[in-house]
Sequence to fold (570 residues):
Amino acid sequence: MRQSSVIARRLAAASVGLVVAAGAAACGPKDNDAKGAGGDSTPHKGGTLSVLNSDPQEDFDPARLYTSGGGNVPSLVFRTLTTRNREDGAAGTKVVPDLATDTGRPSQNATVWTYTLKKGLKYEDGTPITSADIKYGIERSFAPELSGGAPYLRDWLVGAADYQGPYKDKKGLAAIGTPDERTIVFHLNKPEGEFPYLATQTQFTPVPKAKDTGTKYEEHPISSGPYKVVENQNDGERLVLERNTNWSEDDQRKAYPDKIDVRSGLDSSVINQRLSASQGTDAAAVTTDTNLGPAELAKVTGDKELASRVGTGHFGYTNYIAFNPTVKPFDNVKVRQAISYAIDRSSVVNAAGGSALADPATTFLPNQKSFGYTPYDLFPAGRTGDAAKAEELLKEAGHPNGLTVTLTHSNSKDFETSPEIATAIQDALKKAGITVKLQGLEDNDYKDKIHSVKTEPGFFLAHWGADWPSGGPFLAPIFDGRQIVKDGANFNTGLLNDTSVNTEIDAINKLTDLDAAAERWGALDKKIGEQALTVPLFHPVYKRLYGKDVKNIVISDWTGVLDVSQVAVK
Fold:
């Protein structure tokens, strides 16, 4: 369950490709009318929705996209076996059927998953969607020239580790069976109770083999959703979508607008200015990747009309301090505990933009039920830190006169791993006799350093976002010792290889009762937390403007952002 921090941050930012894209417990928008601003709040069909974004929707091919829950803009074109429930707040963390009649039928201890397609499914050209098309869509995602999607299938499917895709290996994957046109069966290497979550990824999109144009497929992918691509400029810088008249209507996508015009490459300040002014076509505009910053939020909060057009969302995401216990003095658990006690989360939250944009965290798992959130605070520091307790532990660790350490962070202005957060930590630890030297690196150098076992520092800032709302893709990549990568990108920051932890991860993965699994993930989070390998700092809160004519605002805890499949502009 590896996921690069680039992907994690992209998910958390909820770029166009994302549902998603970000965590604390939420019930959808808290400071706005959940159905939208304006007079008549009843949604109607018609009109054009504009999407104003910073990042282009590159690689608009279901094989190459890395999404959660099927993506935001992508899920308008690509349907998958399952998808996310399109409801506000916690209800939106549920996985529901999409092309399939149910979320999957497990057998043989969750190593075999069977799906049946709904009747009458069609592509944009009116031809039927078959199980063979879904199998082929998955197989082409293994082609090296179409890489970029989630890596799970290569790990999970029997015999898939070295598969190179249908262009080189026309035999296909024997692990995927299609006994008839509406049935598809997956054979896994090991039990995976969360397979229904994985089936929301765009790699499960049907692709008709006869229409596959390889690397050019992204220019005009064949739609199975409510909209089809009629224009794709500069690799996703501008995407124009229009109604797919052969869409087999589903119960998740409302598809109110007649047309969706996605324009990217815009400066974030320009996006917020345009949404704020809400003039002309911008009155019917939204963004799927641009948050309000602290200064912008202060301005918006003071304007009642603007404040009514702010959507508030949460996504499973944690910003934290990471320790490498192979580097002194962090090999001493008491030193790690001392730092845990010394942290001033109030100042960290302020550095992240204030309490409106960040919730303090004492657990590694986001505080949402679907993740298995179990409240705990193993090293209670209060709001401003417990310097006295930290000093006591330092003495026990053999540092009665304090110590000097180096904190590595990114110079990127992301309010997550950036200088503002590092400085807040530096100031808090100084009160406990810990002198912190700051090592700021350019973003690429920072990522290269912290994700290499050979160069990982002892004390650094990190963050993680989940591929779906469960404890599995949150805890396993960071704490499963079998996922330590010695010659590549490693995300097990504490280099933890605890047999009891690994065994519990395997045991939870066997569960197909996701509520029972969530409870176990929460207990495991607390058990790992006792080793003080991380210091959870905060979960981000996302606040985004939308145009004055946009209605039917739905923001789930799966995505943390406005769901474009639900909005109306008329």
User: Anything to note?
Assistant: Residues 1-39 have pLDDT under 50 and may be disordered.
